């Protein structure tokens, strides 16, 4: 029989990969913010319109890209962040898969302006559905501006599946919170339909949390600090009396990356045992720093899951550290929860 297997054209492969990387506007926001952070930005602006359906723009003052890199960045598996497999064990960047820009450009209209500090002139590039429409020299400040318009313009089923602007804005805001909390040393501004939603100056962890969640948060926070050979833990837990029925203020950051971990969540719950009702959740903002060689973040394209080498030890350390913090701040069990 004749051979029938063929390699897919790049733009088709990109569109398929985009299905995993880009679920909704908030996914684009995450990828662009992370690229800005990896570029060493001090200050990042996020501008969106209509829940991100019609515009998502991220402007940074990071290292920028050369004219060639500005094109290369949109190739699949093109990255400046790793070169060989071993680099996966010493990651200190958010990105490494070299997939985000290629995926986004396959399903949206993207416009870039970028300039490295030392270059005289900037590059202006437009790419639509993986096709470069133009590239020209322009004048722009140091750093990079990426605008993503008409998300899913060529995948009607996906576009129709998007929720209301308000719901998409909520997802974007959640993503923005996570990234901003992971990087208090970077200033962030967030504008939606022309009005400023957040203006976060450079801060420490506590100030950043309070800027995002409001001044009432400050009195709720109990500091958590521990350093062992396996992990350095910092951040805050909310005092037990502020535990809520609904979830929402539970955050783990591992090496400055927001992650979800039912297992570590359970360790926190175990530390609060007897202090809160069994149907309520304590708030926490916990920053774990571990040796990059001891984790695998490459489980899913969105990188919100992480595999730890020794999660049992981590569990035990986390639980006892939080118990200790609760004890230190004289948090004692309430006799009657219903009062
Ligand atoms: P990854 O982040 O995994 O490397 P991306 O597709 O997100 O893959 O980006 C591809 C490359 O484009 C990056 O490795 C980086 O070199 C470059 N790049 C993307 N965004 C920026 C930015 N805001 N500033 C400077 N370089 C960028
Ligand atoms: Mg990236």
TrEMBL record:
<keyword id="KW-0378">Hydrolase</keyword>
<comment type="similarity">
    <text>Belongs to the DNA mismatch repair MutL/HexB family.</text>
</comment>
<dbReference type="GO" id="GO:0030983">
    <property type="term" value="F:mismatched DNA binding"/>
</dbReference>
<dbReference type="GO" id="GO:0016887">
    <property type="term" value="F:ATP hydrolysis activity"/>
</dbReference>
<comment type="function">
    <text>This protein is involved in the repair of mismatches in DNA. It is required for dam-dependent methyl-directed DNA mismatch repair. May act as a 'molecular matchmaker', a protein that promotes the formation of a stable complex between two or more DNA-binding proteins in an ATP-dependent manner without itself being part of a final effector complex.</text>
</comment>
<dbReference type="GO" id="GO:0006298">
    <property type="term" value="P:mismatch repair"/>
</dbReference>
<dbReference type="GO" id="GO:0032300">
    <property type="term" value="C:mismatch repair complex"/>
</dbReference>
<keyword id="KW-0255">Endonuclease</keyword>
<keyword id="KW-0227">DNA damage</keyword>
<feature type="domain" description="DNA mismatch repair protein S5">
    <location>
        <begin position="209"/>
        <end position="327"/>
    </location>
</feature>
<dbReference type="GO" id="GO:0140664">
    <property type="term" value="F:ATP-dependent DNA damage sensor activity"/>
</dbReference>
<keyword id="KW-0234">DNA repair</keyword>
<keyword id="KW-0540">Nuclease</keyword>
<dbReference type="GO" id="GO:0005524">
    <property type="term" value="F:ATP binding"/>
</dbReference>
<protein>
    <recommendedName>
        <fullName>DNA mismatch repair protein MutL</fullName>
    </recommendedName>
</protein>
<dbReference type="GO" id="GO:0004519">
    <property type="term" value="F:endonuclease activity"/>
</dbReference>
């Amino acid at each position: 029989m004749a051979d029938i297997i063929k390699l897919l054209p790049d733009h088709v492969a990109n569109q398929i990969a985009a299905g995993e990387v880009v679920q909704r506007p908030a996914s684009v926001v995450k990828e662009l913010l992370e690229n800005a952070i990896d570029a060493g930005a001090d200050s990042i602006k996020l501008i969106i319109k209509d829940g991100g359906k019609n515009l998502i723009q991220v402007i940074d003052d990071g290292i920028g890209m050369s004219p060639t890199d500005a094109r290369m960045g949109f190739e699949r598996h093109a990255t400046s962040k790793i070169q060989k497999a071993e680099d996966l064990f010493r990651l200190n960047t958010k990105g490494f898969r070299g997939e985000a820009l290629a995926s986004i450009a396959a399903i949206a209209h993207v416009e870039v302006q970028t300039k490295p500090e030392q270059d005289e002139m900037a590059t202006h590039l437009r790419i639509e559905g993986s096709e470069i429409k133009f590239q020209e020299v322009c004048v722009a400040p140091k750093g990079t501006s990426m605008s993503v318009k008409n998300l899913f313009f060529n995948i009607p089923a996906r576009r129709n599946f998007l929720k209301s602007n308000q719901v998409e804005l909520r997802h974007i805001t959640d993503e923005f919170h996570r990234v901003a909390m992971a990087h208090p040393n970077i200033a962030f501004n967030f504008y939606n339909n022309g009005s400023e939603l957040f203006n976060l100056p450079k801060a420490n962890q506590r100030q950043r949390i309070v800027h995002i969640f409001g001044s009432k948060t400050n009195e709720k926070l109990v500091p958590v600090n521990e350093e062992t050979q396996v992990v350095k833990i910092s951040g805050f837990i909310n005092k037990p009396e502020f535990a809520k029925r609904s979830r929402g203020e539970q955050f783990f950051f591992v090496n400055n990356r927001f992650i979800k971990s039912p297992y570590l969540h359970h360790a926190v719950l175990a530390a609060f045992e007897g202090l809160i009702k069994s149907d309520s959740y304590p708030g926490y903002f916990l920053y774990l720093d571990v040796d990059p060689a001891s984790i695998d973040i490459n489980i899913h394209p969105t990188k919100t899951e992480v595999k730890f080498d020794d999660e049992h030890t981590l569990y035990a350390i986390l639980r006892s550290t939080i118990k200790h913090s609760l004890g230190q701040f004289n948090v004692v069990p309430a006799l009657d929860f219903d009062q």
